[in-house]
Each structure stands twice: as structure tokens, then as C-alpha cells.
Queue: 3 jobs
Job 1
Amino acid sequence: MKKLNQSGIAHWILPAVVIVVIALIGVKVLKGSHADLVTKYVPQSASKASKWSGWTPIGVGNTIDTPSPTALSGSSSIDVYFSQQVPANSGSLFHDVWNGSSWSGAKAIDGQGYKYPAALAQVGGITQLFAVQSNTFIYQNVYNGSPASLWKSTGQVSDHAAPAVTSLGNGQFAIYSKKRTSPSTNPVYQNIWNGNSWSGWTSIGGNSLSGPAAATTPNGTTYLFIRGADNSIYENVSVGKGWSGWNSIGGSTTTSPAVVSIGAKKLELFIREADNSNYSNVWNGKKWLGWQPLGGTDLTPPAQGDVIPPLPGIGAVSYGKNNNKVAIYVVGTDGKIYQNLYQ
């Protein structure tokens, strides 16, 4: 190496080697102030990276948990629900709308003290909205620009974690929640709305350290995901009646997973790994394709008053024609929500 330096050859060999290595691993340098807040690296696939819009802030600060996005099938509009720490030691719910090019502006929702929202858009411009009160019970409201009714308890304790809600078609939907039954046991519970009444909470088992994630494909198959006791992701599948049982699909996460249904049978699952980076795994209808880096998030949660403050995870939603577009949401080090669109 000393001879190379003396001859001057190293002056062009080293830059050339760096360029080749960068080209091989697909590293992309991101510019701008927002990159330092949320992004470490981009997907190794250049073609996939080009389809992501990049992280942009919604402009909301003091967000204390995972944003909950929702969209009607085929719609280009996305509704995002989130909670802020206003005032200290309690949460206040907010709502913002993405129309495909801009945001409407955050609007406060009546319900101070509610956190960990889960939302499901329905035909008719209404949203089934669930959130956790300071007493850790899950409450439900119908939102159509403003709360349509008083918050009603679902009778289920959520233990500082957002529930998951998924449409079953024809006005029916299911809600899933983890419940701590002992210091080391956190089974998942299910409750189904059939259009007229609730089925009642029943255990599906498992041991979830964070809130669950759920998605239902057009053929009626429901996929349920949790972060297991070993921090890996576990899957349970239901086709109408009964469940397949919990099976590990790998990964390693410190927060709740997120999942979206794309097209007829495809799913995309998102997690935040222990190094605070985002990863995704695609189900093509037959098998999982494996975990791929999606662009990192460097999250430092804002101060919270919860006894058990969970780290914010990833919010995800599919939208557009045939639900072929995906939007993901994270919370940056500044407490703002950041959006990244895949089209």
C-alpha cells in the first residue's frame, strides 16, 4: 500500500473501489434535513427504491404512538389517526387526510385521554374508530368528520397497545387485541361485528409483546400477526372458521408489526427491527419472499407518562385502484409523523 501511495496509483484506485462497492450494495445517499431524522438506508433493489417517494413530514409534533392509517378500497385518499401528548400524561386523538397530493391539516377529535388508535374506513364516509383510554380499556366510536356518538367501552383491556381492526366485507369487521393475563402471558383476543351485534371476546392464544396486526384478503382469508416473546413475528391464518395456529415467519422487532392486503392474495408485512430500521416481507399467495430492508428509522420516543411506554411502530395502508399502492408512517426523532409512498 505504501508503494501505491508513493506512485500516485492509490489516488484513483480507492475512489474506484468505493464506487464499485456502492453500486453493488445499492446504497443511495439521501439529502435534506428530513433524511437525518428518519432514514438510514434504502432498499438494495434500485428499481424498488425508485418507487418509494421518500420520507416527508406531515408536520405534526408530539406524536406518542404508532399512527393508524386507513383508506377505502380503491380510494386515493388516506385518513390517518394518531395521538399527541397534550397535555402531559394523557393523549389526545387527531385526524388528518391525505388527498393524494396534500394534507387537510390535523383536526382534534373529542376524546382527551384516548391513545393507541385503530381505524377502519367504511362505505358512506364513516370510520370505525377504536382507542385505549387511560384505564387501558378499548373504546369504540363512529367518526364521520366528528365523533358520531359517545365513546363506548368494548369491555376489553388492551394493556397499553393499539388493537387491530380488519374488514370482513358486507359491513362486518373484526377487532383483535392483546391482553396481559399474567406477567409473562399476553394472549390475543378476537371480537367480530356481524353488522348487528358483537360475537364477544374469545382467545386465539399466542403470546404477544406488542399490539397485533391484521389484514383480510378479498377471498375472505384473515391473516393475524404478533410480536412473540422472542421478538420474532408469528402468523395465524383463518379461512372463515378456525385458525391455523401460530407459526414463526422470522424477523426481529421491538414494536408492533403492520400489514396490508394488496390485490387478490398478496400481503406486505412491515416491522421495525432492533436497530430501528424498517423491513418488509411479501406474501405472494403461496410463500413469504423473505425480509428486505426498506429504509431505516432512527426513533427516539418522546417523553410519555405511561407506566409501560411502547415504542412507536409502523403504520401501513394499501390504497388506490386494486389497492396496489402502499403508504407507511413512522414517528421521527422530532415527534413528527413521516410518510413514505410506494406506487
Note: The longest helix spans residues 10-25.
Job 2
Amino acid sequence: MRDALRLSRGMSYKNAMAGLPMGGGKAVILAGPDRHKTPEMLSAFGDAIDALGGRYITAEDVGMGEADMVAIAQRTPYVTGLPATDSSAAGGDPGPFTGATPMPLDGGTAGGVAKCAGAPVGLAAPYAGGCGSGDGWCARSSCNGGN
């Protein structure tokens, strides 16, 4: 729970810096150590989202996938990240499109930071810590040369 509160606070700061007129919410399912989410948990989660009447819209994030969003959508219309219905529709994991840094970091970025810090440029490497779903995509892309 502490992690969810920390993340929502960070999202609020991120939204404020972007000039968005809303805070940053995080919703959590407290699953067991195996991270298994039962159909009952997903239904209760959907009901809780629905009770907010559109003031919060849930989406895929770390530990949640398309199948979870489909199950939640059985209880509320306030869900995104559902599978695309045709090739012209958006759908699925929104992470690659919503990260704080939508483009991968590269060696030039790391080298520039190293130079500004007075460190040897050859020792620099991109680093991303505390990543959510979108920022995790950015970090993985950086490590894979942008792929």
C-alpha cells in the first residue's frame, strides 16, 4: 500500500509539471505473494472503479494485463487497455505511449549527462530506476538499442 501511495504522489507531481488539471491516481489489488488475482478480486475492483462514476479510469499497469482489463470491463465502462477491436483502433498496453520519457534514452544522452557531471564519458550508461509500466518500456527499449 505504501508503494501505491508513493506512486500516486509521484504521478500527481508529474501531472502538475505537465500542466494537467488532475492528480495522479493509482489503484491496487492486494493479491497474495504469488500475485494471483481471482475473478472475485477483479469483479470487486471493477465495482470499486465503477462507484467512482468516471472520476478515475483504470488501465493496464505493472501486474495487470489485457485479460484483467477485460474482466474488469464486465463491471465498469471506466477501463482502458482493452484489446483492439480492429487494426484501426488503439488497444492493449498503453505503457509505451504514456511513459514520462516516451523515447528511449541512448548513449548520447548518458554521455551528455556524464560530461555535465564531470565524469568520464566512456563510463556513462543510461539508467532508469523506479519505473512503472510506461517508463519500464522506455528503459527496456534503451537497453535494446531502441528496439
Note: Residues 95-147 form one domain.
Job 3
Amino acid sequence: MVHLPRQLHSSNRNQKKNVLIFCLQPEGDQSYMPDIPMAFCLALEKKGCSVTMASFKRNDDLKIKERDGRVYVKYEERKFKLPDLDERNKDYEYFKSLIDERIKNPQNESFKIEEDNGERYIVFPAVEQDIDELDGAIGWNASRQPLRQLLEKNDRIVPLNTPDSIEVSWDKIKFHECMKAAGISIPVTVCLHSQDGYDEDRITQELYEGLTQKGVTLPFMIKANVGVGGTDVYEVDTLKKALDIIRKLIQSGKGVVVQEKIEPLAENPEWIRLVVADGKVIGARRCIGKAGAFPDKMDKIIDHIVAPANRMLHDRIEPYKPTTKEKRVAIATTRALGLRVSGIDIMKNSGNPVALEAADCPALKPHMRLGQYGIVDKAVKGFVKEMIRNKESVKQKISTFVARVKTRSDRVYNR
């Protein structure tokens, strides 16, 4: 168990900032590798931060304990088996750079590289962290709930992205409402809520009225309001199929969005992913999928615009130079959602860029494969600056003021 030393907070720019990075390991996914959290860790350490790495398998695994009037967050040790790497592996150089960087600096114990019976493991040590000592927190591939718990205990912590902004970006109904309020172009959308349960007459009427008023015609897309990686996304060409899928989703407790099908996507599945950090586009790639990649069977998950940059990634990706309009859409979308760092999927509809969706923890590794190696450093730059200039608590301000007055008094007295 690593007990982190207590540090006094101050506005001194040279003082190390304490950052907690935590990620959610999907249940049953033994191949999950926290590579981007590791890259964030190394980037923050280079900027003089002290980093704690933590992982958990369920959203409720954030263990908060109180002792001697202080509040601690506790994590057990986690081990991740390194994948077999050789020069034919497309991630070889990327993983090798992370491992080599840690081997060069073994004194930083945020994560370690260990060997056991010829296998290599990435190890997050067991940690007990005083929440009052934290300056920043990054929740990567994780529920917003653990981050919310931390901020409730210490609202001085600077998050990379806030829990509220993460929630809006995850929920497609809330995303649609946010974009509509901000005047940002997205595919024409009809939203069906699930809070009242499934009532066939009500849902049929709402769907018919929404499609008629907004001019959405068959075929169209149906998506669950919450889902990642292209899950629960369907293309339908009859109202009967549409109502069957909507019933299935609402009865499972999910809301539904019905969206127009952007025709060029079916013939030439192509879109762009722009990564935005602190109001600037710091990475861009073009994602190209297979023509005719959208089956219409309701029991199949399809590769559609819900998560194109991830689901179609292995077909082909290319470096991309975004236009000024595309940059404006990505930056405006990120700002409207309240995100500091985001990945915005965009494609053109009738020649104009439209925002398809936003990711609060965008995949950065594909950008590194394309040579955009500085993307992680750029992503944390503003985050570190905010921690440095973050306001002191009232108690700290009083202490600082008293110290300054005492110093001035001593100078006058010594004269």
C-alpha cells in the first residue's frame, strides 16, 4: 500500500500538483489496456505533477473512507497483462514508448512494469489518497459518478471534464437538446423518452408526429440514447421494424433517438474525428469505412455514425486537414457541452458540416499512429494551467494574507 505524503497547497507555480487518474475496466474484458491513461500519466509527470493511477471494474468501486477527521479514497492493486508485441503489431511503437518511458523513470510509482513467469504486466499499486491533497482528477473510460463523488468531497479539485458535461455528451437526447439550444447543426432528430414506460399508442403518435413535422422519411436510423462503440444502433426501412426496435429499447429502460439517414454515408462511409482541447483543434483524422456496411436486422449491431471513429477504425484512417467551418463546428460543440477535451465526429450533409456525436474520452491512439505524437501533451496543457492558477480556499487566502502582513511588519521593524 502506497501512502502518499501530505503536501501543503499554495499558489506557488513550482509546487507539485497531485492528480488522480482513474479508469473503468469493462466487466469480463481481460484484454483491456489502460494505455491512454498511462500516456496522460507520463505527460503530467513531465509537467511536474505527482500522479496516482487507479482502476476499478464497477462504477460503485470508488471506496471513500474517513479517518482522523480526513477523507481518503482507496484503491486495490490492479494488474494488466501486456499484449504480445512485435514489430508487426500496429501498436508496437506506441506501447514500447510507454514502457521505455516508465523503465527510464522507475522512481515514479504511479504505475510499474513487472515480470512474472516470462509475462510482463502493467501494475497500478494499491493506493490510499487523501482527497484534500488532490488538485486534479481525470476519469478516463469511466462513469461520471466516481468523479462526482470526489468533487462532492473536495470542490477545489480541477476535473479534466466535469461530470455534468460528461453526462450530456453520453446521452444522445441531452446532446440533441444541447446542440439545438446552441444552434449547432446535427442530423434531423426525433427524441422518444422512456420515463413513462412503453405505451404503444403514445409512442406511435409521438413518432408519427415527429417524423411528419421534421420531414424524416424511411429509411432512417434508430439509436438508444446511451451507448458506446456502436451498440444499439439500427437502420430500418419499415415502420413495423422501427416500432419493434423502439419497443425493445424503451422496455429495457433506454430512451430513443430517431435520425435521418445521411445518404452519402451509405455509398461512401466517410467522416472525420476532430480532437478539441481548451478551444483548439489538436488532432484530426479521416475515417473511411466499407460501402454498404449497414445491415437492417434489429438483432445486429451496425457500424454507423453513432461511433464511426471507433467502429470503422480498422478499415482505413488517414491524416486530415480540417476546414475552418469544420473546426468551428467542433469547437462550438465542445464549448456548448462544457467539455475541456473532446472528440467530435463530423460529416458533411448537403455540403455543410454537421456534428454527429461527442466523446468525452476520445481515442487518441489512432492519431499517434498517424504521427500526431504531441496530442496527449496538448490535451493536458490547459488542465495543468488551471490547477496552477486554481483559487485557494478562504482559509488558505487568510493564511497567505497573514503571512504577507507579518513579513511586511518584520521588514518595518527591522529598519
Note: Residues 2-160 form a domain with the Rossmann fold fold (CATH 3.40.50).
